[in-house]
Amino acid sequence: MDDPKSSPQRSHGRKTIRPSIVPRDLMEDAPELASTWKAQVITLLPDAFPGLLGQSLTGRALQDGLWQLETVPLREFGEGKHRNVDDTPAGGGAGMVLRPDVMAAAIDDARNRIEPQAPLIYLSPRGKPFTQAMAQHLATGPGMTLICGRFEGLDQRVIDHYRIVEFSLGDFVLTGGEIAAQALIDATVRLLPGVLGNEASTEEESFSDGLLEHPQYTRPAIWREHEIPPVLMSGHHGEIAKWRKAQSENLTRARRPDLWANWCTRHGNDD
């Protein structure tokens, strides 16, 4: 007889910080926090979370209840004695494909615990390139449900049926979607109110206005015979702003001609 299936109920987050440095404190069951931004992750590797998301500012915000994290272990929805989650590709070929019935069961279970407006996202190399603008948009919503692929990917019928959005971190392939999921969550959570503490710090970052960020410097004023550019030590805020903008434009033009072309189009610049 097959093992009985139990619905996962792991939800991570805290209303207040507890004086502890034990990472597993972030993984204990926690009450649902109303109106709190929430990330759900459907994965075969639930122990990979919170990972780096439990450290530094995102980890502190998780403890503070500024956002919530829930893992949905895909294996718990598997079929048969061994809880199989995959099968051979239709039409032949190498590798295995995640089964539609198993993934659908996990999705249906997860979506019962998140706002219906929250997007359902599949981390995939063939998806749209994820951008800062997308992170800013996701940060304004109630949260998101992420699907971490494995093996040769996910049955296309699931993607079509649920109208799943596919995002990619770049033109490369990972062994699974967990690392990509953590990167996407980190990029979004840091934009939530109160997470960084200084909301202005996100306004001058790379991609925020379509340009790469200008170079940064700090003390000492001279390091190994390299000086901080004099304009940054002048105290003239207008000249500093002009210098930083010029640096951002020059860096973007040289390193990311695609971004530079888009920026020029938006600003009516023929350069």
Question: What does this protein structure show overall?
Answer:
The termini are far apart. α3 crosses α5 and α6 packs across α7. The chain is an alpha/beta fold. β1, α1 and β2 form a beta-alpha-beta unit. Strands 2-1-6-5-7 form a five-stranded parallel beta sheet, with helices on both faces. The chain contains seven helices and nine strands.
**Can you say what the CATH homologous superfamily of the largest domain is?**
SPOUT methyltransferase, trefoil knot domain
Mean pLDDT: 89
| CATH class category name of the largest domain | Alpha Beta
CATH architecture of the largest domain: 3-Layer(aba) Sandwich
User: What number of domains?
Assistant: 2
Structural class given helices, strands, pairing?
Answer: alpha/beta
Instruction: Name the overall outline.
Output: elongated
Q: Could you spell the SSE succession in H and E letters?
A: EHEEEHEHEHEHEEHH
What is the topology?
Layout: E1 37-43, H1 56-64, E2 67-73, E3 86-87, E4 97-98, H2 100-111, E5 120-129, H3 132-139, E6 143-148, H4 156-162, E7 165-168, H5 178-189, E8 222-223, E9 226-227, H6 237-255, H7 257-267
Parallel strand pairs: 1-2, 1-6, 5-6, 5-7
Antiparallel strand pairs: 3-4, 8-9
Helix pairs in contact: 3-5, 6-7
Features:
five-stranded parallel sheet, about 270 residues, Alpha/beta knot, about 15% strand, two-stranded antiparallel sheet, alpha/beta, Trp Operon Repressor, Chain A, 2 domains
Short recap of the structure:
This protein is an alpha/beta fold and 271 residues long.
